[in-house]
């Protein structure tokens, strides 16, 4: 029996946003997933709809909050039958780092995601692709991010809105720039990675290096676009394809294989 033969939701996809971003726009991924996948954006304190809450500022605290949100959602969705709920994590840029660390935390408690999907972020075991920016004054901070394509262009059209995002942008970027990879063992969770061909915050070798962080299957797709390429048709097609392959696989997932990448820089 394949997962697509089952009625209703067969997978919940928890989504984590880029630095400073609200998770709510990631709900649009609902249009890029197979039937039966429930998309749940996870909003962090100090971001989006939780803007008035205090920023967490430390990766351990962020991961603890994400785990809490996932468990709360699973409890709300549970029907008391005691069955495990299939889920996957997706994160973009800063969200990819959070999703990776959250996957590791969940594994410690025996919760096994079906898949970790990451985009717009090189392997966490590699240093950032840019010089640190988080301690710079606002004009230099935003100018540096703009040069790298790390801020959506729409924000620059509304300076007052940009000012609202700066505290969360700075806090998230500090976590990225000061992060040190502490893990020695690879995950036993498949990883699917996506990168924009024009993204100045990623590069080919750093994206391929995600393969070293899992003992399971690894997929890598390079797609048209810069850092914010999630609305591009190519990404949505590749994203749906990767999730569909889970749906068509026997339960439990037992995929094996190496990396696939197309096309490269």
Q: Could you give a short description of this structure?
A:
34% of the residues lie in helices and 13% in strands.
Describe this structure in words.
By secondary structure, this protein is an alpha/beta fold. The chain is 34% helix and 13% strand. The protein has seven helices and seven strands. β5, α6 (204-208) and β6 (218-223) form a beta-alpha-beta unit. It is globular, with a radius of gyration of 18 Å. The model is unreliable at 251-265 (pLDDT under 50).
Distance between the termini: 39 Å
Which sequence of strands runs across the widest sheet?
A: 2-1-3-4-5-6-7
The Cα radius of gyration reads 18 Å
Q: Kindly name the structural category.
A: alpha/beta
Q: Count the strands?
A: 7
Number of helices: 7
Provide the succession of SSEs.
EEHEHEHHHEHEHE
Taking the sheet with the most strands, its summary is: 7 strands, parallel
What is the helix fraction of residues, given as a range? 25-40%
Shape: globular
Mean pLDDT rating? 87
**Strand portion:** 5-15%
Low-pLDDT segments, ≥5 res: 251-265
């Amino acid at each position: 029996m394949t997962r697509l033969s089952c009625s209703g939701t067969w997978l919940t996809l928890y989504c984590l946003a880029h630095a400073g971003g609200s998770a709510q726009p990631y709900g649009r991924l609902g249009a890029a997933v197979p039937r039966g996948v429930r998309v749940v954006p996870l909003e962090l304190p100090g971001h989006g709809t939780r803007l008035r809450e205090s920023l967490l500022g430390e990766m351990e605290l962020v991961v603890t909050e994400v785990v809490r949100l996932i468990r709360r959602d699973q409890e709300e969705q549970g029907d008391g039958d005691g069955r495990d709920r299939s889920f996957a994590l997706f994160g973009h840029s800063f969200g990819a780092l959070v999703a990776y660390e959250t996957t590791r935390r969940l594994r410690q408690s025996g919760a096994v995601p079906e898949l970790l999907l990451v985009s717009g972020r090189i392997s966490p075991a590699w240093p950032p692709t840019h010089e640190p920016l988080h301690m710079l004054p606002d004009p230099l901070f935003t100018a540096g991010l703009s040069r790298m394509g790390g801020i959506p262009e729409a924000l620059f059209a509304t300076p007052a809105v940009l000012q609202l995002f700066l505290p969360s942008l700075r806090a998230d970027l500090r976590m990225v720039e000061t992060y040190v990879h502490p893990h020695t063992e690879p995950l036993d969770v498949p990883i699917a990675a996506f990168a924009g061909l024009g993204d100045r915050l990623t590069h080919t070798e750093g994206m391929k290096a995600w393969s070293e962080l899992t003992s399971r299957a690894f997929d890598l797709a390079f797609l048209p676009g810069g850092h914010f390429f999630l609305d591009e048709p190519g990404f949505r097609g590749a994203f749906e394809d990767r999730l569909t392959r889970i749906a068509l696989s026997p339960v439990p997932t037992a995929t094996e294989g190496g990396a696939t990448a197309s096309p490269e820089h």
